[in-house]
Design brief:
Order of helices and strands: HHEEEEHEHEE
CATH class: Alpha Beta
CATH topology: 60s Ribosomal Protein L30, Chain: A
Strand order of the largest sheet: 1-2-7-5-6
Strand content: 25-35%
Low-confidence stretches: 1-6
Number of helices: 4
Largest sheet: 5 strands, mixed
CATH superfamily: RutC-like
CATH architecture: 2-Layer Sandwich
Length: 161
């Protein structure tokens, strides 16, 4: 890794990568968007919505292909970063590690690439935080339905300073 990457902040990376974050999503049921305990923060699952509008509905492998699924997962990741930024008082540089990502893909029963769909979010975390902080464990599962008819939902756990 080059030395410049070590000192570059996540906020600078957002600007450099021309990444716009959506407004922080509002929970649609009886839960909170995040919980923080000591140096850990758990982020509730976020569907692929942009400022309240679900961007991808229907099944991956039927309504959408792999590439569209990855785009949907990236939108989920952007929502997670929006919540994370809010929880950290606007300071993404407090992120010390992405510990775990969980992905849910509304897909056809025979869709073979569920993990590849969730790469849309995983790749975003690597782009923004770099390979050391962005590296994470992960689960990716195919499901029969998601809230609001969304094609993808992603949750995450981060360690913070």
């Amino acid at each position: 890794m080059n030395e410049g990457m070590l000192v570059q902040s996540a906020e600078q990376r957002l600007e450099e990568l021309n990444i716009e974050l959506p407004q922080m999503p509002v929970p649609i049921a009886n839960f909170v968007p995040y919980r923080m305990e000591d140096d850990m923060i758990w982020l509730s699952g976020q569907v692929c919505e942009w400022n309240g509008v679900v961007t991808h509905t229907g099944k991956i492998g039927e309504t959408h292909d792999l590439e569209a699924g990855q785009a949907a997962a990236r939108v989920c990741g952007l929502n997670l970063i929006s919540v994370l930024r809010f929880a950290l008082d606007g300071d993404l540089d407090r992120v010390a590690g992405c510990m775990r990502v969980g992905g849910f893909v509304h897909c056809t029963p025979d869709f073979p690439s569920v993990p590849m769909v969730i790469n849309g979010a995983s790749n975003l975390f690597h782009e923004l935080f770099g390979p050391e902080i962005g590296a994470h464990t992960r689960t990716a599962v195919g499901v029969m339905q998601l809230p609001r008819g969304a094609s993808v939902e992603v949750d995450a756990i981060f360690r913070v300073r």
